[in-house]
Every structure is written in C-alpha cells, then in structure tokens.
Amino acid sequence: MRILVVAEDADRLCRALEDGGCEAVARTRSGEAEHLLLCERFDVVIFHPRSTDPYFLSRMLREYPGRALIAWLRSSSSTRVSELFEAGADDVLDGTMDNGEILARVRNAARHGRRPAELEFELGDLLIASPSGKASWCGEPLALTRRERGVLLALAETADETVPREVIYRKVWGYSMIRGDRSVDVYVKRLRDKLGQAGVELRIRTTPGVGYHLVPPIAEPDEAPAAVL
Amino acid sequence: MRFSLVPRQAQFYDLFAQAGENALEAARLVEQRFKNIPDDKDGQAAVTELEHKGDDITAEIIGLLNTQYVTPLDREDIYALASAIDTVVDYLDDASELIDVYHIESPMEQAIEQCRILVGSTEHLSNALHGLRGLKGISKQLVALKKLEDEGDAIVRDAIGALFENDKVSPRLIIQWKDIFEALEEAIDSAEKAAHLIGNIVVKNG
Q1: DSSP letters of A37-88?
Q2: Which of A28, A120, B64, B82 is 20 to 30 A from A65 (CA-CA)?
C-alpha cells in the first residue's frame, strides 16, 4: 500500500508505516503533495492539519474522491477530532496510538474509503452527485464541467440565499479569492447559458456587490383549489 | 548605403503617425482580449500581427534615418522615439500572449483597468505624434498621458497588493497575474517614456 504523508517531523509515523509493510512518501507542504498526487498513485493520504492549508481536506475530497484521507494529530481533543470527521476525514490518528493501532486504522480506512452518497445533493428536480460526479435536471443529464457543477452545488446548498463570491470561490477552487478575480462571474455566466439551453427552471440572480443566489422554481399546486360558491 | 540629398521630411511624420495609430489599435485589441477572457481564444494572432506591423514601421523609420542627409528632428530623437513606440507594442503583445501561455481562465478587474489606462495613453500618444509635424496641440496630450500613467501606477500597486492580501490564495495565480500586471505596467511606462521624448522634441524645436 502506498501512503502519502503530508506533515512536518513525520519520521516516527513513516517508520511505523514502513515497518508494517507500507511504502510511505513524506512531504512537508500541501502544494508539493498535491503535485505528487497528480503524478503518482497513492492509496491513502495522511495529513497533519497544521502542516496543510485550511482548505486542503476539502480540495482532497473534491479532487481525489477515491482515496482515503486520514488526519494525524500529535495530541487530539474530542472537538478537533469531531471537526475533522465532520469535514470528511476517514479517520483521525493521534500521537498516543501505538504502531499496531496506527497500521490497523490506516488499513481499515484504505478498505472502506469514503461514501460517495454523502456528496449527493437534491433540490427539486435538480440532482448533483458531487462536483466530480454528474448533475441532472428531471433525470436528464446536464453537460456541466466540474467547476460549473461546483458553482451550482455551492449555490444550491443554500438556495434562495445570497452566496458571496468569496465563499463560492473557496468551495469550488479550494483557495481564497484574490480581490478583483472574476472567475466566479465567468462560471456563473456559463452556468446561466447552459441551464437556459437545457430548459432548467432555476434562475441565478446577482446580488450586486456581494454574490449570487439560486432561485428555485415556484412549486405549483397539484390541483386547483375548489371554487367556493 | 547612399545618403539622399532630397529631403523626405514629411515621410518621418507620416511614419510616426502610423506608429501611434498602430499602438492605439494594439491597445484596443489587448483590452478586448482581457475583457473577453476566456472566450477570446484566437485574438492573439491579431495582436502579434500589429506587433509585426510596428516592427516594420520602426525599421522603415530607421531605414529612412540612415538614408536621409537632412532630417526634420535630431537623429537621436527620431531613433529613440521610434524605439519607444515599438516597445509599447512589444509589451502589449507580451501581456496579451501571457493569457494563452498561462491558460488564464478568468479576467482580473485590475488588468482590465490597466488596459483602460493603456488605451487612453496610446490615444494621447497617437494624437501627440499626429501633432509632431507642426508641433501643435502636443502639450495637452502629454499632460493627459502623464496623468493616466500616475493612475496606472496606483492601479498596479493595488493589483499586486491584492495578490498578497491573503496567504491562502493559489500560488499559481500569484505567479501568473504578477507577470501580467507587470507586463501591462511596462507598456504603460513605455508610453510615458515616448511622451517624454516628444516633450523634449517640442522644447528643442518649438
């Protein structure tokens, strides 16, 4: 099993993994690790949250959905562990665990991976499997790119509420938005065009100076109300 | 190479006017390219064509300079001005080319602002070059150009500052946009340099 460890001072962890028959490759920075992930195959990614940027986990979940993601804390607290599980980590290791437990947990996470169903989202007739999956309207597939799906998902998650451009950018691109960057506007324009062409009854409205909000179609009653004589 | 004793002074003025118009056209095209990212995929060819046209005009001015015994302006001024206008178009071409080289997906507001400054600057530069023949109406064009250049300085400072406001931005975007902002700034500075040279010509010959 090949494991990518993204952490500083991970010698003990790497030794434990290698003693257990795994191949461990260590990187100290998330940028270097992401570059390596593009070039090589790893079964598991173990990361130290303090060595990576805050959006590393969400980027990993989005970009590499097939790989197990394990957080490694030198000392853990139940709050921090809960946060990491909520954010999508498959397991959390800490400095108190012995080598046997670490190996058992890593193997378990590699076997089970993540559950794709968690990433499915439904809004009326709109279904988005995940930013890296598929989107459909009334069962008809929508030809959207990964980023277009990501923007749509970011808007659909809080339908009818304005989502600031910075929030959309962070969710979809995985980085903070540079002031003046028009990426979100470009993708919203493309999305509007594609949704319009596909006859999707959802409208993306602009909230000037803030961001965008998705307006779901107004539900029509099944039957006309009976006339009162 | 033979010197001509028959002065062809008007030709210098015509070529400078052409060079100015060419720079303005290039700036307008580059502005459209930056505004239309990512939809303008083929626009670079037209910008490069104007860059080549600018090279040809510069070569023609220098060729004329080398063959004319009598020149309407000092030789070194003609040479420096032709080179400065050529540099404006070179930097415009560089900045525009980076859109494709870096596979830029979305525009940046600050770059569009820099392009607005460039269109204004080259418009004033072109007007000033048209006024060279009679040395008329040049000063107000140069003053306006200088004002735009100052505005351009503030925009590029803000643009580069925006790249480093937050440490969680993509390092790739920082590298890409810093290069583009700087290339556009070089084009703006070159237009100002050309304006300085025109100003000196007016003082010497006015």
Answers
A1: HHHS--SEEEE-TTTS-TTHHHHHHHH-TTSEEEEEESS--HHHHHHHHHHT
A2: A28
